[in-house]
Design brief:
Elements lengths: L1 H13 L5 H12 L4 H10 L3 H38 L17 H15 L3 E2 L5 E3 H4 L19 E3 L9 E3 L4 H10 L4 E10 L11 E11 L4 H16 L5 E8 L2 E10 L16 E10 L1 H6 L8 E8 H9 L12 H4 L7
Parallel strand pairs: 1-5
Antiparallel strand pairs: 2-4, 3-4, 5-6, 6-10, 7-8, 8-9, 9-10
Helix pairs in contact: 1-4, 2-4, 3-4, 5-10
């Protein structure tokens, strides 16, 4: 044992660590739970009683040698670290982190939510995967409606013999309106923002994924005039006073009468461009009075209550508000576009 200690002592005396990591490895090697010192103590325990007194003294001296070496270099490395801090110029400018920006679609969605909540609408959300009942049947879509075809809808599960078993990525957030009316009685006044999916060709004007905000107001004596004034208020708040608006008759299975609402194209000021198809007008939403069949399908008395509904395409609004000519830009994460919206965080 004494020969081993002599050999290790020479090794310790010659040891000159270059950094704190080497010193820590040295400490573990000699003082760790499975280190050399513990191995020597195991040998020490087996020595005859008359040898333990001399061996114990040598062991203590060996342990002190290790600890002194560790303490010496520990102080040295700590001193170097303190000097490095003392030499640092704290007046130097720091490395700033670049601020992010909200996506233009998120900005417009927040503005829409703020406008409608100011006039008493609550925000309701629902699932993005819907069954046939909530996505089609309860909204008065006939079984042969084109929207049920594979070319228009992303079906998760399709049963040609029993459409009630179909499941699909929702094609509109009107499905959330159905869920709201099923579980609540009027008065109801809510908007339903969310992502929707349609099996459409991707172009500058349309995408297979986009965002909608649906609105629903059901109560006694709700009229088409209430619908028009609500939407006039919305457009003036979002695009500014004096924004020109027009309503055109249209058809939707879940509203009657139905209309589409256009605003004068903000991109060209009404002179004509690719966004407005050179008409000077851009359709921003569909709307109408809730069909009595939809109210009855959801357990609401259509003889007592009336209501209006509308659906707004958020990307279409963002394109007009920020004069973006291609809807695909919203999905490409091009930093050159996104950095322009830092000022609107």
């Amino acid at each position: 044992m004494q020969e081993k200690i002599k050999h290790y002592s020479a090794e310790i005396n010659a040891f000159e660590p270059k950094n704190a990591e080497e010193l820590e490895n040295f400490r573990i090697q000699f003082l760790g739970r499975k280190g050399i010192l513990n191995e020597l103590f195991e040998i020490f325990k087996a020595l005859p009683g008359e040898e333990k007194k001399t061996a114990g003294k040598i062991m203590n001296e060996f342990k002190v040698l290790i600890e002194q070496k560790i303490e010496l270099y520990k102080e040295k490395f700590e001193s170097v670290s303190e000097n490095a801090i003392a030499d640092f110029d704290f007046t130097l400018p720091g490395d700033s982190s670049e601020l992010g920006a909200r996506h233009p679609v998120s900005l417009v969605l927040k503005q829409i939510n703020d406008i409608f909540t100011r006039i008493g609408f609550t925000i309701v959300k629902g699932p993005q995967i819907e069954d046939d009942k909530h996505n089609f049947t309860a909204l008065n879509f006939p079984l042969d409606h084109p929207a049920r075809d594979m070319q228009d809808t992303f079906f998760i599960q399709k049963d040609d013999n029993d459409p009630t078993q179909d499941w699909a990525l929702r094609t509109h957030t009107s499905s959330v309106q159905v869920r709201l009316m099923e579980n609540n009685q009027p008065p109801l006044r809510s908007i339903m923002p969310g992502r929707v999916f349609r099996n459409e060709a991707i172009s500058a004007r349309s995408h297979c994924i986009f965002h909608q905000v649906e609105g629903l107001y059901v109560d006694e004596n709700v009229s088409f005039a209430d619908l028009k004034q609500t939407l006039y208020y919305f457009v003036q708040e979002l695009f500014g006073k004096g924004t020109e608006v027009r309503f055109r008759p249209s058809y939707f299975p879940f509203t009657e009468p139905s209309a589409e609402m256009d605003i004068q194209c903000k991109n060209c000021g009404g002179s004509g461009c690719n966004i407005c198809k050179y008409s000077g007008w851009v359709e921003i939403l569909g709307c109408g009075m809730v069909d009595p069949n939809v109210l009855e399908n959801c357990g609401i008395d259509s003889k007592k209550y009336t209501g209006f509904a509308f659906g707004i395409g958020i990307e279409r609004l963002a394109m007009n508000k920020y004069k973006i000519k291609d809807i695909r830009m919203f999905f490409e994460n091009d930093m050159r576009l996104l950095k322009q919206f830092k000022s609107e965080i």
